[in-house]
Protein: Apoptosis-inducing factor 3
Organism: Bucorvus abyssinicus
Amino acid sequence: FLFAPAVEVKIEVVIPEKERSKEEMSPNGKASPLVYKVNGTARHYHLEEHPIASNPYHNPKDVVEASVCHVKDLENGQMREVDLGCGKALLIKESGEFHAVGHKCPHYGAPLVKGVLSKGRVRCPWHGACFNIGTGDIEDFPGLDSLPRFQVKIEKEKVYIRASKQALQTQRRTKMMAKCISLSNYNLSSTNVLIIGAGAAGLVCAETLRQEGFSDRIVMCTMDRHLPYDRPKLSKSMDSHPEQIALRPKEFFRTYDIEVLTEMQVAAVDVKNKTAVFKDGFKMEYNKLLIATGNTPKALSCKGKEVENVFNIRTPEDANRVVKLATSKNVVIVGASFLGMEVAAYLAERAHSVSLVELEEVPFKKFFGERVGRAVMKMFESNRVKFYMQTEVSELREQEGKLKEVVLKSGKVLRADVCVVGVGAVPATGFLKQSGITIDSKGFIVVNKMMQTNIPGVFAAGDAVTFPLALRNNKKVNVPHWQMAHMHGRIAALNMLAHGMEISTVPYLWTAMFGKSIRYVGHGEGFDDVVIQGDLDELKFVAFYTKSDEVVAVASMNYDPIVSKVAEVLAAGRTIRKRDVE
């Protein structure tokens, strides 16, 4: 049923009334920063009532209005990209009503017309972000911005769209946010909200608090030198500079009073006194705490591991340095992980040679299964990547302190000027050992569906947590992926504000190699069979991962928007049976 274009996937999405009216566009297509009032007692905030203007476009020169089609041109459940002369919009007809929003996903610019429309929202075909068609608001991630919404009117059977030219050009809208009321009164060593970690989870938490009208102090701290950046790009486009992959510009943090302390490491958390103790001795009190510290990559434990030019890719500097050292030289990558494979693909045309060492017999075997793994391996081999499988590194040899050779347990010796290690990671939670916060045997922070730990007021999110996944009967899982970190951050923020919001999102991830993407939805852990439709040799396929008779995950290559379609079916709480896809 997933292949039939005629089948419309129906999903009910109910938007709370307050969300619906919360946002009005300002003329520049960004949300106008409003002043927020404190409502009586401390720490209770609400958005100031603001009447919706009958004409939200203050500058008539910035407005364009155009007739885009006849009313009968679109059937219910159809989308069309329409041109207004100075930019495009996405026109949608659902339940007899027309809506118009931005036509590009604000995350990486995917054409939303190729996405999936179902009951009030459109899902991006590339990475699964979801937008409400009535408001343009982002409802699932990745990405931070919403879509601009345009006015639609019907006159004499014709559909007209009225839009701000700037919004048509930027194709994104930042949600309205509160500011901090009185930064000057603050004691430097206390904050209302402290966020440890500045990845997607930490940033989305801070932004969500401000979007919800929270106007007290927010401090984020990170061991990184940089403001939050797009970490998946470190292995996918390795020569990106920090400014190019920043998730928000510096001014953004100033405008919305989100303080970021860089190169600051928390050494311990004292939950009794609600205090974080930093490595340099500095202490900060908090009222609410989010721990979003992510992972620490595993190092090699072999002889010679301290040799120069052996890297874990953790920062933009690491990635840039590897590209520089690898150009026209010999590269050895240890571990056919997502990171290892993406780095191999990126360096294949730049390096003299790329060799990949892996313990399993095919890459991605545990994640994508043997057949998909083999097809991917073939694609790599045809791009000059050499695999050394079912072996590991026994020694790194140096010459004048720098890496010269990688010796494998099989006895093979590989020439190497640079080595990248991608053998997995462990949660960065060592500093919580004595804190009383519950951590499982693998080091993951255990949270409930509201992202709460066992300690009141302490939340955790992102790669370092296990949480109950609705999709798999609330089994506690760790999902160390970009989209999920965003959603964790949002849920944690809403629950810091006592919204009682539970997580129910469906995991969605992607990997990109040699200009091709594999998209994946669900949680395939423990799958016992794979049903493949399409052609693996041509790299045009869909793989359904099943456990007994249920489809638990789906991966695809060159088959959009199948994975986004499946995501909508799973998000609606429906089960896909093995017999449906065989």
Remarks:
- The domain at 60-170 is CATH 2.102.10.10 (Rieske Iron-sulfur Protein).
- The two ends are 11 Å apart (CA to CA).
- The chain is about 15% helix and 30% strand.
